[in-house]
Amino acid sequence: MGIGAPREPADTRVAQRTRPLRALAIAAVLGALIWAITPLVSEVLEAWDAQGVYLPALLMSGLAGGWLAPRPLWAHYLGSYAGQLAYVAFVLGTDGMFLAGALLLFVYCLIALAGAWLGGILRRQLSAPARA
Q1: How far apart are CA 111 and CA 14, in angstroms?
Q2: Residue 31: which region, alpha, beta or left (left: phi > 0; alpha: psi -120 to 50)?
Q3: DSSP string of the chain?
Q4: Residue 81 · residue 101 · CB < 8 Å
Q5: 35 near 89, Cβ under 8 Å?
């Protein structure tokens, strides 16, 4: 900023700095919720073993997260990964396949990332003023 240039309001600067944390936290909670809710709606303990549940749940969690906090997308990806991995590690526990599962989550989280991207687009499209 140059001398005499108008400054952004403090609340705008804070919102910009906390935007990644907000998106990361939302995605982490939604990612962990997938694993917490899966045993209630299916007969399996691990979310990715629930056929027809896990992939749509990833997409829907991404859509919801992208709608609530559209940016930045990297925070949605990282948050979804961290939330799911934390739930698996601390609630379900680790075993010999934990590392393989952690690597597999990198790929699965791309679905949540796509959902977050779509959620952000939907939010922009639906909240845009109508053109006459």
Answers
A1: 30
A2: alpha
A3: --TTPPPPPHHHHHHHHHHHHHHHHHHHHHHHHHHHHHHHHSS-SSGGGSTTTHHHHHHHHHHHHHHH----HHHHHHHHHHHHHHHIIIII---TTHHHHHHHHHHHHHHHHHHHHHHHHHHHHHHSPPP-
A4: no
A5: no
pLDDT for the residue numbered 37: 95
d(CA 14, CA 62): 24
**What pLDDT is attached to residue 10?**
59
Extract the residue ranges of the chain whose pLDDT is less than 70: 1-15, 130-132
Look up the pTM and report it: 0.83
Q: Are 63 and 116 in contact (CB under 8 A)?
A: yes
Distance of alpha carbon 42 from alpha carbon 116, whole angstroms: 25
CA nearest to 61, candidates 109, 122, 125: 109
In terms of Cβ atoms closer than 10 Å to its own Cβ (0-12, 13-18, 19+), residue 71 is middle
CA separation for the pair 34, 85 (Å, rounded): 11
